[in-house]
Amino acid sequence: MRFHKFIPIAALLVLSVLISASCGTSSANENAANTEEGTGPVSVDTATAEVEQIPTYFEATGSLASDAESDVAPTIGGKIAQVNFDVGSYVKRGDVMVRLDARDAQIRLDQALSQFEQSRKAVDQAEAGVEQAIANLRQTQVRLGVRDGETFDIEDFSQVISVRAQLKLAEAELTRYENLVETGDVSRSAYDQKRSQRDALLGQLREARSNAAVAIRAINTAEAGVKQARAQAANARAAVNTADAQVAQARKAVADNAILAPISGYVSERNADPGEYISPNQPNVKIATIVRTAVLRLKIDVPEQSIGKVEVGQSVSAQVSAYPDRNFAGIIVRKLPSLNPQSRTLTVEAEIDNPGGLLKPGQFATVRITQSMPAPAVMIPASAVTARGETNVVFVIKDGIANERLVQTGLLENDRIEIKQGITENEVVATNNLDKLSDGVIVAQ
């Protein structure tokens, strides 16, 4: 009997312990559930993975270089009076970078201008002399009845012609009287009178011919005067041309004292200070170096096995470490004709617009060269990808639960990114509050 009484008491004690343990476990589970319920679901925006046709490309490496670089040097020697730039300054083509002391050059210009003015006045005087000489020639020609280009002969002189005609008649009359005086039909005195008339006409003919010779000399003198006046005018005009050339040279000497920027760009080097004397005869003389960066050259090293994929006119996209989230677009504009024998790569050049000056010559770039045929790719918003160390993670939302996926990314197109591996078409991904998500977290869309 004692044994049967003892058993219920022992069983009661064991049951009490089990109930107590069971109550403690239920309380712990209930507390954990309350804690999780207190946190609540994470609110997220979502997007659906879609298949899109995107350009295909292959990657290469390259480096950026300035589109043009120019060393600025003086063309004349002189003392620097003013420096208008510094390293890093932006200059436009034609801007005055340095002014030299131009006082001596200005004096020479003033002298050249004075000489030119004197020469010009001499031309005016010479041309007036030509006009006067021509007027004198015309007067002589009119007096003799001669025109330009006509040959004047003494026997053609009007006075000579008249006297010669009279002389011919007088000689004929004298011959007739000689016959008559021999027959006694006329008196000797009448014959002598005819001979006197003939002799007088001979004197008049000599005088007329002399006058004609004087007139010819007058024409020759007038023509010589015209020729001489024209020669003097030509010499005066030549002197004006010489003086004008000297003025132009003197003006250039004055202008050369202002050293201008040959291209637009940024100053990368300065070697000029006020008071310093510079000369083009000095070895390696330059006052500055300007690099143009509005458009940069991207020199791309294409592996030998990929040179058949590159042609002039193809689009490229470049990324640099300074701006990892930005792409810089360009176009291939030239290809070198041969490969580098050491690296076995072909260098091609692309032009990259750089209006904001973000890119700098010398930067290294990763380049994607677009191919002609597009290919399908799974695309999601770039905001859906977050970095976890060296890996990229996307949270796929299914049945209100976040599922963490490791993904391999590809081409970035504006605000969308290619997913090469990790998710498939039509899967839904979270696009915000990624820092609050982890695998298995409940979300609210």
Task: Please tell me about this protein's structure.
By secondary structure, the protein is of the alpha+beta class. Among the domains are: 39-52 and 375-445, Beta Barrel (conserved putative lor/sdh protein from methanococcus maripaludis s2 fold), CATH 2.40.420.20; 76-100 and 258-287, OB fold (Dihydrolipoamide Acetyltransferase, E2P) (Beta Barrel); 107-255, Helix Hairpins (Orthogonal Bundle), CATH 1.10.287. The chain contains four helices and 22 strands. The protein has helices at residues 2-39, 103-144, 158-183, 188-255, and strands at 42-43, 46-48, 50-54, 57-72, 78-83, 90-91, 96-100, 258-260, 265-270, 277-278, 288-303, 315-320, 323-335, 345-353, 364-370, 375-381, 386-388, 391-398, 401-413, 416-421, 428-430, 443-444. Strands 3-16-20-19-18-17 form a six-stranded antiparallel beta sheet, with no helix packed on it. A six-stranded antiparallel beta barrel has the order 4-11-14-13-12-15. The chain has a four-stranded antiparallel beta sheet with strand order 8-7-5-10, with no helix packed on it. β17 (386-388) and β18 form a beta hairpin. α2 runs antiparallel to α4 and α3 packs antiparallel against α4. The longest helix is centred in the middle third of the chain and has 68 residues, at 188-255. The protein starts with a helix and ends with a strand. Residues 1-38 have low confidence and may be disordered.
Short description:
With 445 residues, this protein is an alpha+beta fold. It contains 4 helices and 22 strands. The strands form 5 sheets. The chain has a 6-stranded antiparallel beta sheet, with no helix packed on it. Strands 4-11-14-13-12-15 form a 6-stranded antiparallel barrel.
